[in-house]
Amino acid sequence: xxxxxxxxxxxxQLRGTLKDDTVAVxxxxxxxxxxxxxxxxxxxxxxxxxxxxxxxxxxxxxxLPPVPYGVSLHHKDFxxxxxLQPETMVAVIRDILQSLVDNKVFRIxxxxxxxGNIAPIELASRLVKEKNxxxxxxxxxxxxxxxxxxxxxxxxxxxxxxxGGEAETSAMMALRxxxxxxxxxxxxxxxxxxxxxxxxxxxxxxxxxxATGAPREATAEKGEKIxxxxxxxxxxxxxEMDRNGWRYG
Length: 249
Known about the structure:
By secondary structure, the protein is α/β, with parallel strands linked by helices. 37% of the residues lie in helices and 8% in strands.
């Protein structure tokens, strides 16, 4: 099945593709330090590669260009952090969602790659949904925690968690190995964070390398399992939504 990537399509191709049941896939990421071993764009590169794999299994998906910037205020202790203000990010997401609705695309799947985007995505989505009740906006908010739930025995340390940690590094090793230099992977850093109460930290309080978790435990084999379980979860979600005509409740 051909993968439909909007940035690579022309208007003629789009006219032959766009249907009432088309699902648009949005990717929101960030540009920030992930340690010496990982690229600054990991938070949008990995979800974009995942989206293309999902699109190869579903005929009515169109993958939109990834948004490479997010809310990264908490990473500003590290060089070349590119951040949007929260209100800017909400406005960007809201405008993109509304643009899809204006183009009569009412089925939307968001794949998010960065923790700082979770709150802006929810706020923007609720604003657009309130204005356009017929749109369905779905979101994979936090793939890095989902994989720890779906395949907990895969990881050696901290359920795979971490910024540039075991899960994220493994996923990049599988999907874009050319962008990972494991010779530069730092030693593990496991912050002493409480289990049941969230602390709104700044990243420089947790690590001095730009990475947390255990990146040296990462492997491409783990990454393939991560990509596979996420791909299956998203394809299953889309198939179930299709069977129900994207109705729920």
